């Protein structure tokens, strides 16, 4: 484990699927999160659905906007139907604000804004999971 990782978080049996066509974003998020939570990086929704088919259900799906561009905003309802207990975070750059806001309105629970920073990513995940130390979950209309 790395310095600054809380053992209670590392063993709480939570799971994240990072789903993005961008390999660099997937790898960065997996690196930032893997010490505190079981994190799986997947290149497509099909891979995520296959991995979550039986016992490996995610608590959080982190979606790159490339997934929303490929499948449309309706995919958020599909994800909610397949994984009703899961929370969805999107990854967006400031230039993608319009699509990011549309995703939040369509059901995403929050956003991670690029450039990604370890402390901000971990804090957002703690918040979305309702972990101690995370701020109260408030969904705002904008990124």
From TrEMBL:
Instruction: List, alphabetically, the Pfam families matched.
Output: Response_reg
Instruction: Cite the entry's keywords alphabetically.
Output: Phosphoprotein
- Extract the InterPro entries matched here: Bact_response_regulator, CheY-like_superfamily, NreC/VraR/RcsB-like_REC, Sig_transdc_resp-reg_receiver
Q: Which residues form the Response regulatory domain?
A: 15-129
Q: Would you tell me the protein name for this molecule? A: Response regulator transcription factor
